[in-house]
Amino acid sequence: MSVHILIVDDENEICEMLSRHFRFLGYEVDQAESAEQALEIMSEKRMEVVISDIMMPGMLGTDLVSAIRTEYPMTHVIMITGYVTLENALTCMRRGADTCVFKPLEDLTELDEAVERALDDLRRWKDKFLELQGMKGGKK
Amino acid sequence: MSKIIDRRILIAEDDLTSRLILSQTLSKANFQIVVANDGDEAWHIIKQADSPRLAILDWMMPGFTGLEIIKKLQYLDSNKHVYTILLTSKTERQDLIRGLKAGADDYLVKPYDADELLARIEVGRRIIQLEEDQVSFQNELKKYATDMEELATDRAKQLVHADRMATLGLLSAGMAHEINNPLTFISGNRQVLSDCWPTIKNSLEQDLKMAPANSAQIGFCLEEIPKIINGVGTGVSRVKKIVDGLKSFARQNETIRKPSSIHDCINQALILCKNRLKYNVEVITDIPEDMPDINVDKQQIEQVLVNLLYNAADAIEEQQKQGSIEISTRLKSGKIEIIVEDNGGGLPEKILAGLFNPFFTTKAMDKGTGLGLSICQGIIEEHDGTIRAENRSSGGARFIVELPLFTTTEGATK
Ligand SMILES: Nc1ncnc2c1ncn2[C@@H]1O[C@H](COP(=O)(O)OP(=O)(O)OP(=O)(O)O)[C@@H](O)[C@H]1O
Ligand SMILES: [Mg+2]
Known about the structure:
A: Rossmann fold; 5 strands; about 50% helix; globular; B: alpha/beta; 12 helices; binds magnesium ion
């Protein structure tokens, strides 16, 4: 399956950089410069994973997590933040983000692994669904 | 307190009989006599720092006359006043006035009555005592004034320092944040470039085979690009270290204090430093079991200890030897002292003054940012404690942290 990742950060250079990185790894990547724009894109395109900054002008990343959790429960969210506080991390966790990775992302592998884990999870569910479909088919 | 004046009296009289009578009278009245046989000797004694405060001077004697001595006294460069009683056989009113004008405090005409002499001496002593009281009062006042001034300067310095630290804290938080974003994409882009490199390298190698004409440039790229990628990486790590330092520098004001055991703090700090200390450093701890609790933010105190331990380890490493760090604690009048000492190179005199300043470092670029000790100082002062540094007599540095003990009244109000 082709995997879609959405990168949300008000710092365009970071969006570009992460997009480049994940495209290199073979993912399909979109970019948004705000949480609002992210929701707009998501209304038209299914995303497997969203990687979002927390501190952004307008809607905060933590609010984006809440919105995604209710509207797109299957989409995984990974937070990145330069504003490392316990409170930020707790909010991310409570609102259902997968994890929170701290900038400056000196090593991108932590982020890669988070994406991998999210995709594993999605794959497991997909297998379950396929299995269920197979069972239905068998009963016919 | 003003000092009580002693009972010494200088007698300057050349005539033996007169001198003896005078001495006897005074001795009987419990005075200690210092004798001068002539004017020169008298002057010599008076000039000395600890001379008697009261002098009975004969007018007529060999060497300086009593009158001359009294005149010279006016110019003696000393703020000590010698009370002088001029002895004279002259009865002329004119003479007496001359003596008093020259600066004599009192006079007696020979032959004199012993009781009158003693009475006049008492007058003199009263005046000397008054003078003495006034001098010591003035001194007290002066001392009080300087004390107040010192206090005010200290307080002002503290305030300026606190203010500077607070500003610096805000500034560093802002700076850390501002630097972090560009650092993120520099670092990320480097990694992307590094991931792309094998592909680029492959095609460059192909090109090299196909077009040997460009071999010099292609060779250069093959050689240098990996180094460029590495160089950027080194830069990123270095900047990240500074950013981390700035962040913890900024964070030191948010304390959460709880009664904690210093024992735990030290052990935790040692665990955190385990990797740094395992090769060339032996750690000796001397911590009494039953230390009372201190009311601190445990993590922050751990950070102080970690910074001190890292510095000690650095100092030992610089000496390229096996070293030891001693950590000890002791109680000292309502306070707890935590001492971290090492047998590294110690602290040269000229760096002592600036040691705790932010960004003061003697270490290489990629080793120290110079924030360690200023962070320590910030944390300890926030805890109403002090931190100071000194050299051990046996070589190496000693850092002494003093923290107030946790008192139960404090706990009850919490
Ligand atoms: N135990 C010690 N022995 C000798 N010199 C010391 C010791 N501790 C500190 N110093 C001196 O004090 C300087 C300042 O120390 P500080 O911890 O503030 O900064 P740093 O260690 O240079 O850098 P950082 O801690 O930010 O990595 C050091 O560079 C060193 O010269
Ligand atoms: Mg240090």
